[in-house]
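Hello forum,

I keep getting stuck at the same step: I have a sequence, I want structure tokens, and every attempt I make locally crashes halfway through. Rather than fight my setup again tonight, could one of you with a working pipeline run this one for me? It's a single chain of 309 residues.
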Amino acid sequence: MVGTVQATGAAPDETFEEHRGTLFAVAYRMLGSAADSEDAVQDAWLRWSAADRSDVRDPRGYLVRITTNIAVDRLRSARARRETYVGPWLPEPMLTSPDVADDTELAESVSMALLVVLETLSPLERAVFVLKEAFGYPYAEIAAALDRTEESVRQLGTRARRHVAARRPRFEAEAAERRAATDRFLDAVLGGDVNRLMEILAPDVTMWTDGGGKVRAAVRPIVGAAKVARFIGAVAGAPYSGVDPADMRMRRTDVNGRPGLVIDGPDRTISTVTVEFDEQGRVYAIHMVANPDKLGAVAEGRELAVERP
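Reply #2:
Ran it on my machine without issues. Output:
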């Protein structure tokens, strides 16, 4: 259970390390930041190491409860900081293994598009949604974890699901279709084929570019195929973040459960790009993260461990 504790024969650090990946996965879905998630997990370790574990019956559940509440507190304080953020705020990207992309439900749970939608939920709504939809916890255990009544938690879950459903597409392509569509988009971008790019973009496509005020990026979302194509063409054909196009290396890899693009310079990662498709296979959303403060995990090659409940 999420909030019950039990004695175990394992040393505290061994027990904690066994569940570290799960705790990071919970925190990352809550916070959208690898750095903040690491801090939350570290805080959870400090609380775990100081706790009386004599009657802990379910270490994983107990640790998830601690981490969730730490993440809720951190999310509340982060909201104020993000209100002054320069330009669109996007989650910190992370690499994922190809088998994650092959599992549609699992890939969706860490997709950039879903994490963006989760930003619009209240911290408690987000906690309920993550624990219920991503990790399969029953409402009774979530209520215990958040120190709320089960009825109130069910209401939070219902509001969160409706909110997410209203902002996420009903169409979800299979992994093979998504990979093929992504390849068509990337081929057009890398080949500088504006006409082909216009064919691939949905008329109302929206592109979010997160530079955090530190590198060149649009301070508002770019809407419309022609405007998006012009922006992509301008970025692809000129030096960016002090790096000449000839010195850039572009690699296709999986980012947040989606086939994506990582752009590297000689000494650093410059940006990541992920896309979302409609039922016609056209790109309707593009997320580009170029804020150097958010590219550490990708630059290190760190892979997000994604697991089923």
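The mean pLDDT is 89. If your local run keeps crashing, start a new thread with the error log.
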